[in-house]
Amino acid sequence: MKIISSIGEMESYSRDARQKKQKIGFVPTMGAFHEGHLSLMRAAEKECDIVIVSVFVNRLQFSPNEDFDKYPRDMEQDKKLAEAAGVSVLFAPTADEMYPEDFSTHVEVTARCARSLCAKRRVGHFKGVTTVLAKLFNICRPNEAYFGQKDAQQAVIVKKMVRDLNLPITVQVMSIVREKDGLAMSSRNAYLSPEERVQATALYGALKEARNIIGAGEISAARVKNKIEQILKKEKKLKIDYVEIVNAETLESVDRIDSNTLIAIAVFVGETRLIDNIMVSRATANL
Ligand code: PAF
Fold first, then answer.
1. Which atom of ligand 1 is nearest to the CA of 54?
2. Does ligand 1 come within 6 angstroms of the Cβ of 30?
3. Tally of structural domains, the chain
């Protein structure tokens, strides 16, 4: 596996690969790999000739009160895991090269999907995500880019950016990878104390219960939301940020569970904000 940190070197590597008609799969990350990241790398490895994984903790997507400084970083471990997953290139640019002092251009999706859910709480977050991705896409020139469904809103916004800007990239969204007890894998799970880690299982527990009642015939979004909130409120360490029931494409709230409904939650577990979601539909809720 090749390690590249210079943008120029990465660009010329991708240019060569494109000239040779090699299909480039790209997995953008902020490092601290877990099974969720590795599943994206493995999927890319199956479908593409070359797999580029970027590791860049993107300051632009953190607001001043967030965890940029303490965000987990473990480059040595990441290198080993990426190599074992069949990655061709680990691209780890420096912040100075990505954002030189005179950097002043941003890419922002302004559709409703970029104004709901996490966008209400994390002002500027998605603008930071789309800006860094626009740069990384230009540098790495992938044919396919892989994202996790855990960040469902991010995936919807990235698809919109790719469509609006006519970027020649297919966005692939892969299923959430969960711990044995159901907690969605996240680099931020590392922040949880043992007690918080136990209570964090309520997030997926509440979503599963929502799926159960929908399977039993419930179609009112308000009642499903209420059920989820009741379950989450039982745990002392949890503080609900939001529980939203939305159309999976527009991310606009719905009153009734439909054929394409996303239930998305964000919950503080102690100081750590975790997100999770499930797709439900009236017809398949029981499957
Ligand atoms: O999902 C992430 O880890 C980040 O938002 C991403 C896509 C790597 C952009 O910094």
1. 8
2. yes
3. 2
pLDDT, tens digit (0-9, with 9 covering 90-100), for 46-98: 999 999 999 999 999 999 999 999 999 999 999 999 999 999 999 999 999 99
For residue 262, give the nearest of 225, 216, 218, 223 by alpha carbon: 225
**Signed CA dihedral, 91, 123, 144, 103: sign only:** negative
Counting Cα atoms < 13 Å in the Cβ hemisphere of 76 gives 0
Ligand 1 close to Cβ of residue 29 (< 6 A): yes
User: Does residue 155 form part of some domain?
Assistant: yes
Token pair belonging to 34: 């877990």
For residues 199 and 235, the answer to whether their CB atoms sit within 8 Å is yes
Q: Is the CB of 251 under 6 A from ligand 1?
A: no
Domain stops at, among 174, 201, 222: 174
User: Residue with the nearest Cα to atom 8 of ligand 1?
Assistant: 29
The pair of structure tokens assigned to 101 is: 């002092």
Distance CA 201, CA 39 (A): 21
Tell me how far apart the alpha carbons of residues 143 and 167 are, in angstroms, rounded to a whole number: 10
Among 29, 165, 27, CA closest to 108: 165
Are 61 and 161 in a shared domain?
yes
